[in-house]
Amino acid sequence: MMFDGELKDGYYIEPTIIDGLPVDCQTNQKEIFGPVVSMIPFNTEEEVIEMANSTKYGLSASLFTRDISRSHRVAAAIDSGVIWVNTWMLRDLRIPFGGMKSSGVGREGGFTSLQFFTEPKNICIKV
């Protein structure tokens, strides 16, 4: 543990940073909906892309780099519904949001939400 988030009263934990876990451990293979990050060192783009895609989930990913060309390459190769570059959770509600693979139930946001949550119906009335 690099930063051990304490369990507070109720159902919340403080931000937690974990290092030293293998890629295939449950912490790195499941979706953790909390302030938890697992740090895994890597040597090449190919290696980190393979690690990111090794899970059956693909809700979102964040990339941090100074190389904009690299961000485009890596983002295109990662199987995730949303890729944030040099930020996290920056979201415009007019743009579709949702995961790939076993993450989520489709897309939500903007016109996509109307299509997902409604059923079109044609009603014709002669007056």
Automatic annotation (TrEMBL):
<keyword id="KW-0520">NAD</keyword>
<dbReference type="InterPro" id="IPR016161">
    <property type="entry name" value="Ald_DH/histidinol_DH"/>
</dbReference>
<dbReference type="GO" id="GO:0016620">
    <property type="term" value="F:oxidoreductase activity, acting on the aldehyde or oxo group of donors, NAD or NADP as acceptor"/>
</dbReference>
<dbReference type="InterPro" id="IPR015590">
    <property type="entry name" value="Aldehyde_DH_dom"/>
</dbReference>
<comment type="similarity">
    <text>Belongs to the aldehyde dehydrogenase family.</text>
</comment>
<protein>
    <recommendedName>
        <fullName>Aldehyde dehydrogenase domain-containing protein</fullName>
    </recommendedName>
</protein>
<feature type="domain" description="Aldehyde dehydrogenase">
    <location>
        <begin position="6"/>
        <end position="123"/>
    </location>
</feature>
<dbReference type="InterPro" id="IPR016162">
    <property type="entry name" value="Ald_DH_N"/>
</dbReference>
<dbReference type="Pfam" id="PF00171">
    <property type="entry name" value="Aldedh"/>
</dbReference>
<dbReference type="InterPro" id="IPR016163">
    <property type="entry name" value="Ald_DH_C"/>
</dbReference>
